[in-house]
Amino acid sequence: MSTTSTTSTTTGGARGAAARTAKDTRTAGRTAPRGSTERRLARAGWLYASPALTLVAAVTIFPILFSVVLSFSEVHLSYGGFRIDGFTTDNYAALAHSSAWFQSLAFTVGFTLVTVALELALGTAAALVLERLGAARGWILAVLLLPWAMINVVAAQLWGYLYNGTYGVVSWAIEALGGGEPVILGRPVPAMAAMAVADIWKTTPFVAIIVLAGLMQIPKDVYEAAEIDGSGPWTTFWRVTLPQLRPILAIAVLFRTLQAFGVFDLPFVLTQGGPGTATQSLAILGYKTLFQNLSIGPGAAVATSTAVLVLGCCLLFLRAFRAQVDEGGR
């Protein structure tokens, strides 16, 4: 008899709990319609952002799409502007057989690889030094940022003065050290090296700031554990610091690669792409084709091909960055 009563009580209690749970669920559904609230917030967000998105589309997306259209068009100049007489792929066929395009691509890729690699190494070294500084870190950081804060054209003109064969300090130093009469910007290899030095001087602080931010996020107990295990400075850097910095380094490489691949102002001010076409980047080639030769279709094809290459590099680095983040999370 007692067993039957206990079973009935338990069954009744379970049914009552289930009924109360169902009632609470219905009440919560009536009082907190999360789906509709989130949709309203999303619509409000798009409404508030629509002016900025419209401006971005007008000044960024539309010119890009228009450039793509021109690259597939037969464009002819006239006194009233230009006209499109039809669509063609001859502009890209001309690029495929253009030695100037391949030379510009080779210079741009080489310039990007050399400068980004050296800036990454020097920026990491500078960030490691800055991390260990005390009260003087702020002042040294401010001085370090001066080259990065300088306008690109002004910095390029400054280096042009330094490289000048008549009154340039660098040319005078080379001549004083017995290097003969210096012709830095008038020969292909010295001009490339001089341009790389100018770019490294200006953009290494940018890499150093990014790496320093990553170093500040590494927990100190990781270094304490490595010290307890008897790890030396080099072993700690390669086994502890560098793995922790891989996502930050991926971001630095991404930004610097995109900037270096589209370099224009530095070769334009220093060499105009010369001597010959030794320092002619893809951006310089597109500028000369479009604005000096007035070949709108081929110039747009150069610009579009450059944008496609930059987009491909961006996607590859984003994929690598995601892999680094996933590996760090595991």
From TrEMBL:
Give the primary localization class.
membrane
What is the taxonomic lineage of the source species?
Answer: Bacteria, Bacillati, Actinomycetota, Actinomycetes, Kitasatosporales
Start-end of Low complexity biased regions: 1-20
Q: Where is this region: Disordered?
A: 1-37
Q: Which InterPro entries match?
A: MetI-like, MetI-like_sf
Protein's UniProt keywords contain Lipid metabolism: no
Q: Which residues form the ABC transmembrane type-1 domain?
A: 105-319
Q: Does the keyword Membrane apply?
A: yes
Which keywords are on file for this protein?
Cell membrane, Membrane, Transmembrane, Transmembrane helix, Transport
Checking Gene3D superfamilies in the record gives: MetI-like
Subcellular location field: Cell membrane
**Record membrane topology:** Multi-pass membrane protein
Please give the name of this protein: Sugar ABC transporter permease
Its family remark reads: Belongs to the binding-protein-dependent transport system permease family.
Recorded source organism is: Streptomyces coffeae
Return the Pfam families for the record: BPD_transp_1
Q: For this UniProt entry, which segments traverse the membrane?
A: 46-72, 105-130, 139-162, 191-215, 248-270, 290-318
